[in-house]
Amino acid sequence: MNPKRLDEIEALLDEKPFRAWWVDLKAVRAELRAVRERKQGIDEQLVELELSSERHQKLAIDALDSGSEAEERAAALDAEVSRIENQAIAMVGAFEDQRARASDGWVKLGAAEKRLEEASERLAAKKATVSGDASRLAAEVERLTREHRIAKETYDRESSRKESMWREVESLWTRAAELGLLGVEKRLQAGSKKKEAERHLQDAEREKARVTSLGSEIAAVDESLAELEKRAVGRLALAKEKLGAMVGDSFLYWPCSDDDKQVWCLSLVSDSSTYGIEVEPLSIYRATVRDGVSGLEESPLFEAEEVDSDCG
Asked: Of 92, 98, 83, whose CA–CA distance to 169 is shortest?
């Protein structure tokens, strides 16, 4: 590798072979960057689709579980409604028996009231005539009064029991209706959850199909990427052959003619962070062979005119 002076490198940058090489390298790198961005975009889509497909599958499982729980709940409610209805039917039979007892008590109470009323009237009549039968009638009235009281207590008790039993019957019918209505809701919810699960599974399948399609697409992009990377490497190799330079990824190097421990560094990229200073394309720096571009001088020694410098 022949050492060069700075002015020799400056002159080299103005020659047509270098300019043609530079335009060709930029074009390949621009195309390479576009394909890499395309690959990154596809990779991001793949990640999103795979995550979304997994999410839809999980949601489908959750929906199926919820639907099964709703179906089980509906079946349990149906069984409970049947049990309550049977209980209510039995209670209605018991109520009818109780109503008969209450009716019988009502009849007996009416008869006791009538006997007491008639005896009380006879007693009043006897007292008015100062008859000797008054004491006997008074005793009879007292007895009939006790019978009336007992008849009333019996009727009140049986009637209260009848009313209580009817309230229980009504409560059972109401509870059966309430659970029946809830069962209808649960069955509809089960159907809705099954449909929801089907939608999620369909979405998951569509996304899986898209993943497969993108897999084919990314294979083509990888093939293009490999070809472009090969072309880019080939363009850099031409710099060694035609320009007499040592070749890196982002710099070309020539030994300094005045110091064999230093090299001229020609930047091929625009970069403000990697090298400790801001470098621009076609700017020439000086560095030691030992340190390389980690020890670039702060200011370039030469900057060629560059219209489109975005070739990193």
From this structure: 92
Domain 52-217 fold: Helix Hairpins (1.10.287)
The strand order across the sheet containing 283-288 reads: 246-247, 251-256, 259-267, 283-288, 302-303
Q: What is the pTM of this model?
A: 0.59
Bridge partners (DSSP) of residue 283 are: 303
In the chain, the amino acid numbered 39 is K
Going through 182-292 in order, the beta strands assigned E by DSSP cover: 246-247, 251-256, 259-267, 283-288
Q: How far apart are the first and last CA of the chain?
A: 26
- Nearest partner of 201 among 59, 306, 66, judged by Cα: 59
For residue 173, what pLDDT band results from cuts at 50, 70 and 90?
A: very high
Asked which of 44-58, 102-116, 161-175, 244-258 is least confident by mean pLDDT, the reply is 102-116
Tokens read off for 225: 């990427």
Q: What is the mean pLDDT of the chain?
A: 88
Whether the Cβ atoms of residue 20 and residue 312 lie closer than 8 Å to each other? no
CATH 1.10.287 domain position(s) in the chain: 52-217
